[in-house]
Write a structure and sequence with these properties.
Layout: H1 3-18, E1 40-47, E2 56-63, E3 69-75, E4 79-90, E5 93-99, E6 102-104, E7 109-112, E8 117-124, H2 126-131, E9 133-140, E10 145-153, E11 163-164
Parallel strand pairs: 1-10, 5-11
Antiparallel strand pairs: 1-2, 2-7, 2-8, 3-6, 3-9, 4-5, 4-8, 9-10
C-alpha cells in the first residue's frame, strides 16, 4: 500500500465521523418552537407515587427569556402543597434538599428531571387525577407567572431509590 492509500485509509473514517456530528443548536430561546426572548415552561409531567400518602414528583423544563430570572415558587390549585427540591449524591448516598429559588439564565434551559431538580406535590386532588393533569403556576421574582398543565403519570418504579429522605418526605 502506497503512502497516498495509507493516508486515505486513515482519513476516511474521520470524514465519516464528521458527518455524524450533532445538528447545529437552535438559536437561544428558539428551542421547542419558543420565540426568542420569551420565558416558558414545557414538557411538564407529574409522576404519582406508588404510596398515595407520599408526594408525587413533578418534572419540566424552564426556558429563560431575554432577561435572567429567578423561580421563587411553584403552586397548584390541584395539590395541598408544592415544593422545589434538588437531589444530590453525598458520600455514596442520594440526598435531597429543599430549594427556595432557582436561577434561570437568559436564553438558557433549566431541567427539573429525575435525579436532579424536581417539584414535590402533596395530596393531589382526585379530580385532577381523574382528569389526567395537574395545573401548575410558576412564579418568578420579577412578578411574572407562567401557568401550564402537567400530564399525570401513574407510578412506575422508584427513580429516587436509595435516597436518604428528610423528615416528611418518606415514601417518595
Amino acid at each position: 500500500m502506497n503512502a497516498s492509500m495509507k493516508l486515505l485509509a486513515t482519513l476516511a473514517p474521520l470524514a465519516l465521523l464528521a458527518g455524524c456530528g450533532q445538528p447545529a443548536a437552535p438559536e437561544s430561546g428558539q428551542e421547542n418552537g419558543q420565540e426568542s426572548g420569551v420565558r416558558s415552561v414545557d414538557g411538564a409531567s407529574v409522576r404519582l407515587n406508588a404510596n398515595p400518602a407520599a408526594p408525587a414528583a413533578g418534572y419540566f423544563t424552564i426556558h429563560g427569556g431575554a432577561q435572567p430570572a429567578t423561580l421563587v415558587e411553584i403552586a397548584s390549585p390541584d395539590a395541598a402543597r408544592v415544593e422545589m427540591h434538588e437531589s444530590r449524591m453525598e458520600n455514596g448516598v442520594m440526598r435531597m434538599d429543599k430549594l427556595d429559588e432557582v436561577p434561570v439564565a437568559s436564553g438558557e434551559a433549566v431541567s427539573f428531571a429525575p435525579g436532579g431538580k424536581h417539584a414535590m406535590l402533596w395530596t393531589i386532588s382526585p379530580q385532577a387525577i381523574d382528569a389526567g393533569h395537574v395545573r401548575l403556576t410558576f412564579r418568578f421574582a420579577d412578578g411574572e407567572q407562567i401557568e401550564t398543565q402537567a400530564k399525570i403519570e401513574k407510578p412506575g418504579g422508584d427513580d429516587m431509590g436509595g435516597m436518604d429522605m428528610p423528615e416528611g418526605h418518606e415514601g417518595h
